[in-house]
Amino acid sequence: MRKFLLFILLMPTVLLAQNRKKKDYVVTLATDFGAMKLVLYDQTPKHKENFIKLVNQKFYDSLLFHRIIQNFMIQGGDPNSRKAEAGQPLGNGDVGYRIPAEFVPSLFHKKGALSAARDNNPEKASSGCQFYVVQGRVWDDAALQKQLERIETMKGRLPTDEQMQVYKTLGGTPHLDGNYTVFGEVIDGLAIVDSIAKQPRDRQDRPVKDIRMNMTGDWVKKKKITKQYGYKF
To answer: Which of 40, 108, 203, 219 could join 184 in a cystine, given CB atoms 3.0 to 4.6 angstroms apart?
Structure first.
């Protein structure tokens, strides 16, 4: 009888776990330029769990993309940006903790990659809240070779041959590999990254006109994500 009761009690938990395996969390990042859809990688569980928590808490709502550099990336997530005055320096806000680095060789800084910002801590641990989305550029062989030399200087991770082909076609920022954790990617709305990155900015790379964000998240069936966005798990 006890075993039977235990089985009954465990059934909802087991079913929930099985259901979650069939679904994934899709983030909708809305801006005045449109909305991006993002997925978060299972290979970086600490970053995924933390980002989902912050999205569900509405932490990112009304925060700014406070740093933009065309052909590089757009950065946001500083809590100090919510009520920042025009021209106020931003980028030092945090949530009081870091996330340990989760470097995965198959995850790299291609265009649309979602990555964690960080300070210069020697462990390369990530900010608990600040992130950036890669815009990057397309690299020819000569320019990519210089990037590889820069990676070695920065003690990062050299891309594979397959990843180098992506850098030469889709584009990205190779020199960041192995130095900043990539934990997700844009699966719809890449053009919005381009639109934000090209906006006028001041000397501190802050957009002259505030670019605010709002985020929501939903658990969606993986089959539906693949069918709707072409993303393959």
So the answer is: 40
Q: Which whole-number Å values give the CA distances from 204 to 87, 187, 201, in the listed order?
A: 9, 29, 8
- Tell if the pTM clears 0.85, that is, is over it: yes
Calpha distance 183→43 (Å, rounded) = 8
CA–CA gap between residue 146 and residue 102 (Å, rounded)? 26
Q: What is the H or E stretch that residue 3 is in? A: helix 2-21
Tell me the pLDDT tens digit for each residue of 11-36.
554 444 556 689 999 999 999 999 99
Interacting residues of 105 by C-beta distance below 8 A, sequence separation 6+: 157, 160
Given the candidates 1.20.1440.80, 1.20.210.10, 2.40.100.10, 3.90.640.90, the CATH classification of the domain at 23-229 is: 2.40.100.10
d(C-alpha 100, C-alpha 124), whole Å: 8
